[in-house]
Design a protein that fits this description.
By secondary structure, this protein is an all-beta fold. It has one domain: Rieske [2Fe-2S] iron-sulphur domain (Rieske Iron-sulfur Protein, 3-layer Sandwich), CATH 2.102.10. The strands form three sheets. The protein has a three-stranded antiparallel β-sheet with strand order 1-9-8, with no helix packed on it. The radius of gyration is 13 Å and the shape is globular.
């Protein structure tokens, strides 16, 4: 059965500006703090699953360090072919802690 649950990721006061790696339930997620907003995206490039954490962030675009694929951190869209996406995750803040919504059965 597929369902979803909110999984603790990090305390808000430990979240740094720009790129933060977290692993709720072992799932590689990037929490990106940009201009006071938080974005949660997969830490795996859609091309060859390279880690995006080592990439560069410019405006709202993260560039994969392996082959320069660029993704919008707000939508997960690949900039050169919008039909290709990386997962984006819902998040919430509760009592100073950030939680990521994880769909069970999908990793």
């Amino acid at each position: 059965m597929i369902g979803s649950s909110w999984v603790y990721a990090i305390d808000e006061n430990k979240l740094q500006e720009n790129i933060n790696m977290v692993f709720p339930k072992g799932l590689p997620v990037l929490l990106i703090k940009k201009a006071g907003e938080i974005y949660a995206i997969s830490n795996k490039c859609a091309h060859m699953a390279c880690t995006l954490a080592g990439g560069t962030l410019k405006d709202y675009t993260i560039k994969c360090p392996c082959h320069d694929w660029k993704f919008d951190i707000r939508t997960g869209e690949f900039q050169d072919a919008r039909e290709i996406r990386i997962p984006v995750y819902e998040w919430k803040l509760s009592d100073g802690r950030i939680f990521i919504k994880i769909e069970e059965g999908k990793k």
